[in-house]
Amino acid sequence: MAYSEVLITPMREDLTRHGVVETRTPEDVDRVIGSHQTVLMVTNSVCGCAAGKARPAVVMAMESEVRPEVAATVFAGGDVEAVAHLRERHLQGIPPSSPSMALYRGGKLVWALHRFQIESSTAPEIAETLRSAFAEHCANQPV
After folding, report:
1. Does the predicted model carry a pTM greater than 0.85?
2. Rounded mean pLDDT of the chain?
3. What gap in Å lies between CA 107 and CA 129, rounded to an integer?
4. Which of 19, 77, 89, 117 has the most crowded CB, counting CB atoms within 10 A?
């Protein structure tokens, strides 16, 4: 069962007002991951670690010179079918986690950050972890 849109709209906007693209359907997820060279996919959540750590970290990291071509998001408990599709098709073998982040290069998963890693870090630490992943996977590397 999905959360009320009234509840989660401000949480969605924490990312979308900074240019993060929403993927609210399975088709949206496939289109974004498949049509861009590098993609950061954020599984957003209502929890406190999403609000105080994950979302601020994404905003900070996306200000970096080296970054993915696009940042996108799905909302756990909001975009139920899109999240299930992301997990089943694009995060195979990765335990479900929200919030979480995954980096794709050429449509393939190359890096992931799980909730337990988010919970145990500060927003600036997570942003630095993201920047390191961007430097490794988004900087002039052939697919």
Report:
1. yes
2. 95
3. 21
4. 77
